[in-house]
């Protein structure tokens, strides 16, 4: 029927096809509107603001890329910027290795066929993710408190009291400690995502591998891991974006000055200090916007590397 | 959940916007009902009760037609929240002023009005007004309210038990510390470095005034005649560094509330204090405590105290009730307010020239030092924290590092000086 119509009235069909598909617009508009007002506009305006500077009266004038030059070359700014970036990379590396590593391990354990109480473990491990960071920060500060925390007493009880230190207060350990607290909180997310991917693998494949004589290790390495690689990729990119936007836990535990000696300062806290100011430091919206734009560029680069470098290859491997 | 984490900053801004719009609608509503409602913006959320139950009722006895609301943000969020509300035109009529540049900045942006013509401003000395005046001293934009004084609060029970006498000189101070440490039952000094500001304010600024001779050194520093690398400042850092062995286990991750608890639980003997701690200790400590002034190197010489102008009240330039706000400010300048404030919040000392009786004995002792020692304000507050790097933040950082042992006193002094020389002309030579 259709074919006959098309062949009989080709012109009319062509106009019908080229007519604007109103339903697409209807469905897209609400989302596009909200997204534009609350995401795209602030983003573009931030980039615009980063090209301005303000004088004493608060009036803003265009300065081009001067703010970026200051941020990257003036020692008063660049030292803090590079320090924040380095700390952020360490923060990210710890999450990648520890959080995603443990997440993968937990997901493997959860997907064991004869595991009892799997739901309970899953819920318990996921629980901290749903708590407020302020609570997480408060609880861990109490646990690790050298004066009345339970960590020093627990260590003493097993004869390891000498190992305890004021971990959150030492330059050498503060960042690692905070990273591990964050790992503890968010380990549920990679676990859930990877677990979902693991239970999606058809049993036939695993059975076939077993029949072919593969041991548990070979099955993991050659069957399961390649099949969950796309999920691991998604987990990595989520971790990357989350870590480079992180702010709240460090603000809650160490304050915006991210001590000691800025050893826990990451881009988020650096941005906060610059934009809102801190104590006697008066905030600078324009310089803050510059830091925010730099963060955007860093995140964008990471995501692009992932999209073009990693994800494409992953898909090629799948098909 | 990860999404939640990524959106935090955005969420904060939105929260501010939301708070601002709520405030805006309340204000709009309030002004529709009565043109005489004043809203006070403040960071003193601890004092809300005192304002609502004592100060505002006392004001209303005299001026029943002016309603006053007290609205406070947490101290760490106040500056950011206030700036957002001022920019959005939704801030309250009366703005509690931080000292020096934070408020000067608001005045320069035209967000605060001059209060030179407000009745009662004549009750304040130039020093009291300096924190809220333009650099030339001609225009004052906030009515001074109170200052805070540094010193040391000690646990009397512990001092009696160990038969100790409050020290006057640095040598005596160390002898007392040694005795408490030798006894081993109590932590000699309650202080932590996790929050950093404790080290700078309760440590460096508290004892430093005796080394750089108060105002003399502070002004010389501003004029560029003294540098942080001068002996007075290096010695202050060195004295601070010598406290580390007397501080509690794990002081590196001890925060301000930990420090307060350590003292009020009777586990520490000496607490390097700000006078604002007094009302909190009155509530929490079940032992007697007293205070001694920052130790001097030579008992026969002059002594100095950090008597820091801390809090004032200004008028929002966009307020619709400027006349009512001025009436409130002149009342703030009166001795009636000073009396209520000083005794409801012992530890915040009115700056007025008129005589005020402080009833709390420990607070009275603090304020009594004004008669025997010379007052000065914190040296990083006026002009010197205008540039990048911010001197106050630098002092927090290096003071904490000196105590943590990750920096030598000379290095700390050099870092503070280098930062200052980076942007401040008089120090570039």
TrEMBL record, chain A:
Pfam families per UniProt: BPD_transp_1 (PF00528)
Subcellular location: Cell membrane
Domain of life assignment: Bacteria
Keywords recorded for this protein, A-Z: Cell membrane, Membrane, Transmembrane, Transmembrane helix, Transport
Chief location of this protein within or outside the cell: membrane
Record carries keyword Cytoplasm: no
CDD domains with a match to the protein in the record: TM_PBP2
Membrane topology: Multi-pass membrane protein
Record Gene3D superfamilies: MetI-like
Domain ABC transmembrane type-1: 85-308
TM regions (residue ranges): 20-44, 89-112, 124-144, 150-168, 175-199, 219-244, 256-275, 287-309
Family under the similarity heading: Belongs to the binding-protein-dependent transport system permease family.
PANTHER family in UniProt: ABC TRANSPORTER PERMEASE PROTEIN, INNER MEMBRANE ABC TRANSPORTER PERMEASE PROTEIN YCJO
Protein name according to UniProt: Sugar ABC transporter permease
Organism per entry: Microvirga puerhi
């Amino acid at each position: 029927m259709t074919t006959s119509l098309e062949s009989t009235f080709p012109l009319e069909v062509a106009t019908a096809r080229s007519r604007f598909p109103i339903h697409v617009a209807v469905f897209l508009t609400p989302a596009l509107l909200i997204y534009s007002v609350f995401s795209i506009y602030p983003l573009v305006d931030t980039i615009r603001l980063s090209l301005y500077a303000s004088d004493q009266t608060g009036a803003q004038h265009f300065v081009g890329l001067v703010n970026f030059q200051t941020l990257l070359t003036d020692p008063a700014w660049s030292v803090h910027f590079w320090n924040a970036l380095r700390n952020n990379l360490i923060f990210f590396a710890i999450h990648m290795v520890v959080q995603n590593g443990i997440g993968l391990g937990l997901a493997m354990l959860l997907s064991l066929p004869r595991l009892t109480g799997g739901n309970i473990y899953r819920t318990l491990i996921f629980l901290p993710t749903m708590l407020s960071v302020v609570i997480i920060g408060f609880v861990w500060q109490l646990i690790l408190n050298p004066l009345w925390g339970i960590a020093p007493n627990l260590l003493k009880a097993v004869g390891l009291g000498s190992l305890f230190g004021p971990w959150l207060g030492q330059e050498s350990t503060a960042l690692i400690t905070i990273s591990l607290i964050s790992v503890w909180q968010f380990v549920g997310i990679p676990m859930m995502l990877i677990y979902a991917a693991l239970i999606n693998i058809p049993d036939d494949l695993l059975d076939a591998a077993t029949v072919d004589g593969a041991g548990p290790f070979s099955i993991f390495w050659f069957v399961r891991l390649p099949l969950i690689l796309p999920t691991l990729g998604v987990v990595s990119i989520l971790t990357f974006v989350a870590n480079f936007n992180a702010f709240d836990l460090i603000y809650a535990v160490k304050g915006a000055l991210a001590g000691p000696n800025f050893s826990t300062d990451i881009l988020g806290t650096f941005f906060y200090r610059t934009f809102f100011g801190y104590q006697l430091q008066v905030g600078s919206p324009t310089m803050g916007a510059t830091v925010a734009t730099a963060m955007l560029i860093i995140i964008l680069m990471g995501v692009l590397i992932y999209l073009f470098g990693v994800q494409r290859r992953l898909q090629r491997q799948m098909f | 959940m990860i999404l939640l984490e990524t959106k935090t900053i955005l969420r904060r801004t939105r929260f501010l916007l939301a708070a601002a719009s709520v405030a805006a609608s309340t204000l709009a509503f309030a002004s529709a009902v009565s043109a005489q409602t004043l809203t006070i913006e403040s960071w003193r959320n601890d004092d809300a009760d005192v304002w609502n139950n004592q100060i505002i009722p006392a004001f209303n006895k005299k001026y029943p037609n002016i309603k006053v609301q007290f609205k406070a943000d947490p101290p760490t969020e106040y500056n950011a929240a206030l700036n957002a509300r001022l920019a959005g035109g939704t801030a309250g009529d009366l703005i509690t002023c931080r000292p020096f540049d934070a408020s000067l900045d608001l005045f320069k942006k035209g967000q605060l009005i001059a209060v030179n013509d407000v009745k009662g401003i004549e009750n304040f000395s130039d020093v009291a007004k300096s924190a809220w005046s333009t650099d030339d001293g001609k225009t004052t934009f906030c009515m001074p309210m109170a200052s805070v004084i540094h010193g040391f609060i000690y646990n009397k029970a512990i001092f009696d038990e160990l038969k100790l006498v409050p020290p006057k000189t640095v040598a005596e101070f160390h002898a007392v510390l040694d005795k408490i440490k030798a006894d081993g039952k109590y932590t000699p000094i309650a202080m932590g470095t996790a929050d950093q500001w404790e080290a700078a304010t309760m440590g460096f600024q508290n004892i430093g005034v005796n080394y750089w001779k108060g105002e003399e050194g502070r002004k010389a520093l501003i004029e560029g005649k003294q540098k942080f690398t001068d002996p007075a400042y290096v010695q202050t850092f060195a004295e601070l560094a010598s406290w580390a062995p007397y501080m509690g286990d794990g002081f590196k991750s001890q925060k301000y509330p930990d420090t307060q608890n350590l003292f009020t639980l009777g586990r520490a003997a000496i607490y390097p204090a700000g006078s604002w701690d007094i009302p909190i200790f009155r509530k929490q400590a079940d032992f007697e405590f007293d205070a001694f002034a920052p130790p001097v190197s030579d008992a026969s010489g002059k002594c100095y105290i950090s008597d820091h102008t801390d809090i004032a009240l200004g008028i929002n330039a966009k307020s619709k009730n400027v006349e009512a706000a001025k009436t409130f400010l002149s009342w703030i300048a009166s001795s009636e307010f000073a009396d209520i404030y000083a005794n409801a919040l012992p530890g915040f000392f009115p700056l007025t020239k008129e005589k005020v009786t402080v009833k709390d004995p420990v607070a009275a002792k603090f304020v009594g030092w004004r008669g025997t020692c010379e007052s000065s304000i914190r040296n990083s507050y006026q002009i010197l924290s205008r540039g990048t790097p911010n001197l106050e933040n630098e002092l927090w950082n290096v003071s904490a590092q000196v105590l943590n042992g990750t920096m030598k006193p000379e290095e700390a002094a050099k870092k503070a000086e280098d930062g200052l020389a980076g942007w401040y002309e008089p120090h570039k030579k």
